[in-house]
Amino acid sequence: MLRSTDVEQRERQVVAGRQDLRTGELRGATAQLRRRLAAHRKDFPDRAVAEDELAALMAMAREVTPDLGRLRRSLLLVAASLGSVSAFTAELARLRAAVELFDGGAGG
User: Which end of the chain, N or C, is surrounded by fewer C-beta atoms within 10 Å?
Assistant: First the structure.
């Protein structure tokens, strides 16, 4: 028979595993977009804003539980900065999907 502490430990492991997947995807999506932006030779007015917010997203991806409001704000700023550059469409979609993984909290 499982003790309640065993059940609680397993629940924590499941939550931690799910969290690792979400933060891992956020790190991957952010890194991919940062690389793509670095390789993009054309300059545009809000490039610095996008770079700053991608750095903020990468920092949040290292947190155990990133703040969803901050994630969304950074995503919005990145999308507003890069949205008119069609070369970033796929990367922005992946970043958006990574942020959406955090909707619903630990319960999914």
Answer: N
